[in-house]
Specification:
Layout lengths: L1 H27 L5 H23 L9 H28 L8 H27 L3 H4 L9 H18 L1 H10 L8 H7 L11 H12 L9 E2 L5 E2 L3 E7 L5 E7 L3 H22 L1 H6 L1 H16 L1 H14 L5 E2 L12 E5 L3 E3 H4 L5 H22 L1 E3 L7 E4 L4 E3 L5 E3 L2 H16 L2 H11 L8 H15 L9 H12 L6 H20 L5 H12 L6 H34 L13 H32 L12 H30 L1
Parallel strand pairs: 5-10
Antiparallel strand pairs: 1-3, 2-3, 3-4, 4-6, 7-9, 8-11, 9-10
Helix pairs in contact: 1-2, 1-3, 2-3, 3-24, 4-6, 4-10, 6-7, 6-8, 10-12, 15-20, 15-21, 16-17, 17-18, 18-19, 23-24
Amino acid sequence: MDALVWVVVAATVVLLVIGFALAARRLLGLRFGVVRTLLGGGLAVLLAGPVGRILAGSVSSDEPGIAPLWFLILAVACALLASMVFLVIAEALVPTGSVPGPVELVRAARRALLRSRRYLRITRILVRHGLGPYLRGRDPDLDAPSSRARLARSLRRALDEGGVTFVKLGQVLSTRGDLLPPEFVDELRLLQDRVEPAPWEEIERVLADELGGPVDETFAFFEREPLAAASIAQVHLARLPSGEEVVVKVQRPGIAPVVERDLDIVARLARTAERRTRWARGVGLGDLARGFAQALREELDFRVEATNMAAVAATSARPDVRTPTPYPQLSGRRLLVMERLDGTPLGAAQDGLGDRERREAATTLLHTLLEQILLHGVFHADPHPGNIMLLADGRLALLDFGSVGRLDASVRASLQRLLAALDRADPMGVGDALLELVPRPDEIDERELERAIGRFMARHLVPGVTPDVQMFGDLFRIVFAHGLSVPPEVAAVFRALGTVEGTLARLAPGFDIVEEARRFAGRHLPVPGDRDQVRTLVTQEVVRLLPLLRRLPRSVDRIVGAAENGRFSVNVRLLADARDRRHLTGLLHQVLLTVLAATAGIMAVLLLGAGGGPRVTDAVGLYQLIGYNLLVVSGILALRVLVVVFRERRED
């Protein structure tokens, strides 16, 4: 019997806790975490008894039944008010969502332990290579070329020792001549992504997982020795049962968790550097780290690469350039099967080419990239020699589509205008095209921007000076100096151009990339002011305006008729956007609740201080009882306003 009583009591207490918790959350009008809501309900249950006993002490046994009922209601209201106060204070001190739940805490602790080990190792690497002071907030000495070269060398060695993620980061940074001094770019280009191949047993498990069965069931032949091995994947030769020769790209086992952990460390280091150093804030290191993390995560998913390969092949149909055909039905997140092309990597094949063949290959490669960027909007963003193959029939082939850029029509048009204005040495045209390419800030000195562009052109685009790709780096330094931020897709364009410039310099020394780009523009891009272009544009605009022109006479007739009859009016619809209406309604609700809370509080104080009036008990008058209830109502309304303020402040 005693056990049954305890069960009933426990169940009653639990129900009371849940009831108080739900009532407090409902009155505040917001959702809170389960733990803090139940704690608030438990606090209300703990206080309800003492408050009820205190209030019951003022009621004598001969009082009418209505008086104890009122005091019971008041005790419950006070306990509920205490629960609401707890939730509001908790929201102010520890906002909802700022502290993870128990399960997430355990997972976070495990991740933190693993991250700490890796973080300590990375820190030791940085300190060993002399980069420790920069972690503590010291700005690097970038004034003297010798200091820049020494720091760049230390950074390259540290990134090389850090592993796959940091090697990839260094390779990306080596293409950002618009952000880093030339010494850093030249040093980081030395980073190589070559490692020992993974054992066949581990690769075989990955293949079986992705294929859903043994390797022999899918391939008639599979070469166990890899053709090439990198830090993320390695490549094997294979043959399908149909006899087709294929190349199989397999992700190294266990690489994804390592990369994720390293990306977290890269993000933390970038945030720390931005918070402590001026140079990191100047180059936007946090945004750079986020863009790098997104690109590397896509590179880990070979399904994205297969989609990129198909997109480039579909939009670029040059007969002298090939892209391998993927086999989507055999590919997966960690496996990519593609057509095998018979050829030699460009870096190894260029020595056997004559000057004429080198120049033809360089022209083909540059025109292919410019077509992809300016005409089609889908381009290979990493055209270094290792990703280009010279086929046996003399054609070029593009490989490794893990990094592909995409541009919409408006960005392509702005790029065309930018290049055309550079060719005409038109500072105003360059400035206008730049402001179309980048997000325009609220405040910008356009005259100073035009003067800076004019100085840039006087340095790079005057007779007797041969323009080179380095001018793009100087141009985008002007962009950053004026507070403009380059979108990732535009940065990818200039990264690709910088990479292909290095490839062309190795393939055909002395190749004039700017002059060849001018020839390409003359053949493929519309000439500003050209008669046929103007005629086409006018025709397109007239066709778009025809429906409006047909309706215009009727509209004018209706307006004139309404004006003649005195019925002409103009309707202006304020707050047409639903979001604006919701925002204004929320503000009005908050103001109304504040006024009601203040009014109830003032009335409660006045009633509590008033003497006389009917007596509810010997110690409490009717005015005081009403005052206590109004005080509770005032507290509830005020707490509802405060909790919304705290929640909105955190969300902002």
